[in-house]
Amino acid sequence: MIPLIVFKEGYSVLGNGTSLESWGNILLWVIVLTLLTYGNRELEIWRITKDVERYLKFFKRTRDRAISVVLSSVRENAQKYKRKLDLRLLEDRISQLIESVFIQPESKDPFKIITKLKHLVLIEDKRLGNEIKALVPSLEDNEVENLKNMVSVARELNSIYKMLEHYYRLARKFKNLWLLIQLQSLMPFMSEEIKALEKSLDAFKNGYPLGDSVGPLVASRFIFKHTTEFKPTEIVENTIMVEVPFDARRVYVIKAKGPSGCTGHLDDAISELIKELKGKIDLIVTVDASVKLEGEKTGSVVDGVGVAIGGLGVEKFNIEEIATTNNIPLYAVVVKMSATEALSIMSKDIALAVDTAVERVERIIRERSKEGGNIVLVGVGNTIGVYP
Amino acid sequence: MVRNKSTAYSSENTSSIEQIRRKWALLFTTIAIISTILALTMLVILLYEGIKEPYFMINMILLSLALFSTYNAIKYYRVKQPKPSKVMSLLRCYECNYRELREAKKGEYVYKNMGECPKCGSNRYYIERIYLEREEIKTRTS
Q: pTM value?
């Protein structure tokens, strides 16, 4: 052991020093150890705080960039239609939109909660569209849809940043190491989500298909593969239906109306179609993107039973309800990808998986329905950059 | 022109990663060189003069610092830059199967009719795919 105070050469605390010197050394050691223990804790808090701050700075930068992308897109669109915009007013309106809240329905009594949720979602969708139209009235529908998507992304980024910053400030205020540790461990996952949302802005701005557009793309590929002449019918708002002949069967392909960035009202479209066909449907096949597990490969195609559809669960509930009431078998085809890939511009692996997914859909139709039957194929997801 | 727009984010990220990499690699290399020179000089003196405390301990600390900085410098030199990404459009004629792969332009979408096929003149000439090529999406799940 190295003595802290050397009185004479060869002296050590463990040696035969004078008692005063020994006590002095011991006291010094105790002080040093106490400082080290306390200092270590403080150092740990400082290190974690800096780490969390670093992530928060990145999130804030991303949020700000998203807002500026939204603003520049609105300005670009306004310029296209030769409309002058008051920049301050525009910023105010966009920031109000980004700060606006969506209050979920009360769930203490869950009776009819899906109906209430759907009602609120529809109101929210219309409100967002009307706000954007109020800014630039001459915008076309697909431009409004793309701007709506961009505002939604900026809103999501803003809410994530604000929530994380709130917990960070709380932890700093009460010097709570455990809250900081929890925040720090959460940050890499949030960072992935933020990066994914940021990448989706690029797609929405340019109108390119996302990873999530794989469902509508499979539906479109099926249409173009099996028919040369077709006329899409807008069966419900923002949702189209195309009748395609396939192996002596009639396949009714339903998807959101492209190439704008919308998801359509698939449940209403199926309900409408069932009414038209008086319930004579042999099976419903849904195609969607699905989040892959760690070991799974991007673009792998899997099929199964049920409704492949994400979101708040409104459409899934309604399709299941319709199918159960009419005794229609439900089959699903999913294309695996990571959450980041689902929100980024479609990757090559996913684009190549579309053909495999179409083949799987064809096989399901051939094997599980009889000739002369009516089949519904639903392409689920955001149809940005995918026609019809 | 359009490609530059579509890859704006990725090129921005690439340059910032490169800046950070250079900064830290330079810092650790400098620390590694200085601490190695000091540690070796001190070691030589100690070998000639005889090992004395606390100089030996200081020498050990300097050596550890040299090793730590060298390790970090190597780590930063090894960081690979993400490859630049391109958004590609695959055009296909549904009559003669003629295909053309080129960079996507703003406003293009899948199954946009691209007019007449340059090979057979059919009007069933569409954009069949639009996808992001050669981008390394670094996620914890992929």
A: 0.80
